[in-house]
Amino acid sequence: MNRKVPSTLALSALAIALMMGGCGADPKAAAAKARTEYAAHNYLAAQTDLATAMAANPNDANLIELHARNALAMGDGIAAGASLEKLANLKKPDDFNRLIAEAALLRGQTQEALTALGDDKSAAGLRLRGLALLSQDNKAGAEQAFLAALATDPKHAPTLASLARLKLLNGDTATARSLTDQALAADGSLLDAMLVDGQVATAEGQLGKALAAYAKAGKEYPGNLPALTGQAGLLGDLGRTDELAALLSSFQGVTTDGTLAYLKARLASAKGDWTATRDILQASEDKLKDRDDAQVLYAQALTHIGQPEQARARLAPMLARHPESVVLRRELGKAQLAGGDAGGAVQTLTPFARSQTASVEDLRLLAKAAEAAGDSNAAFFAARARYPSPQSLGQALSAADAAMKASNWGNAITAYEQILALTDGRSPLVLNNMAWAQAQVGNKDKALQFAQRAIQVAPEDPSIMDTLGWLLFQSGSNQDRALDLLRRAAQKAPQNPTIAKHLAEAQRG
């Protein structure tokens, strides 16, 4: 239910294909091909071939039904509804009312969906009822419907995935993980199961696992936008711009909601090309006007290219609506400072001085604005930036330790970044743990860089030698040094099973 392709585009593509139908294409071959493509989850290709087949056989109930199911798989409730309306006068499948309900949900017509479901007590019907109630923000009713569906069929994978997403929405990550694993065990090829696996893994900080889940979904369901969005977002967060660029250029799906434009703009910003960032977002401004993340990125680009007043005009109303947002406060302060309004920047940024957990970056920005404004508190703000509160360091250390113990690599990286900013950046333990966390999310180059920094500070520490040796072995970049480090680490810590395991594997080659 989280696939969404704008119906107007889908219908226009169908109309074009229908007009082209009969121009040499074999309708029977096209129908057979469409069925194969649908089974392979290649819905875009199936849509084109179905149009060819239906142009020659406009009243074929089987083709109309397949078109409706294919449209639902693409998230197009309008196209699906049109085919189902036609099918109602021909041959209805057993799950006709559920198809009607799903199409209605995709169109945002919740009551129509509930009416279509009637008193359907099947697991599939109860799941759709739960989704309808969830769209009405009735979380309790939705959960009750999902649980009723699982009471009917405990291994109904779509319901397990839907309930997992609801649990994740409610902040219960542990239960969401359990339900997701059950959904994958019941049907590992289910799109919703793979997508919620990525969402839950992201919440757990298992970013490498999340990437793998989204990549698998994208491979098995070509052109799926949520799979692309999930994967692209993580690659962007991890700074893997080359992989992100390759992913975006290879995407063959359809989207007219600005998502692809936003992702391309994000890639341009990651490369430091702020003019391109602005141009990309400007071209899709109407489609992105309701997306705060796109508006913040647009404002950042405007500030970078020398148009801070325009950035302020975008950010100020957003901060008024969301005064708790650290990102909005920071970016508005930057825009004000760039526009020569240092006093306004101080006023915007001063709440950071009262925060016991403010980042060094934000404190330094405040200090810079105060100095430029000649503010009487400039010296205090400067000292606050040089000597962050013990609470902020303690909180970061505690968060990092908890994240490492929970294998929450995403949170661990965030915490260690804060610790490195709050200190002189020479703690071998922090550097070593950062190297390990970066490796777990697939950032191999960054992991090696941190491991090299750690061994420069503590060249004889067996754990640090093990980390660097193991990373070198896995990268294949310097096998001789990898073996030497692992052997020395094993000699210094002969009782350490992890080091022994790494050395044994490296020696096997």
TrEMBL record:
Concerning Pfam families, the annotation shows: TPR_15, TPR_19
| PROSITE patterns xrefs | PROKAR_LIPOPROTEIN, TPR
Keyword Lyase in the entry? The reply is no
Repeat region (TPR), residues? 428-461
Membrane-crossing residues? Answer: none
Reading the lineage from the top rank, the first entry is Bacteria
Keywords in alphabetical order, please. Signal, TPR repeat
Signal sequence span is 1-25
Q: Which PANTHER family match?
A: CELL DIVISION CYCLE 16,23,27, CELL DIVISION CYCLE PROTEIN 27 HOMOLOG
**Stated name of the protein:** TPR repeat-containing protein
Which organism does this sequence originate in?
Novosphingobium sediminis
Its organism's taxonomic lineage begins at: Bacteria, Pseudomonadati, Pseudomonadota, Alphaproteobacteria, Sphingomonadales
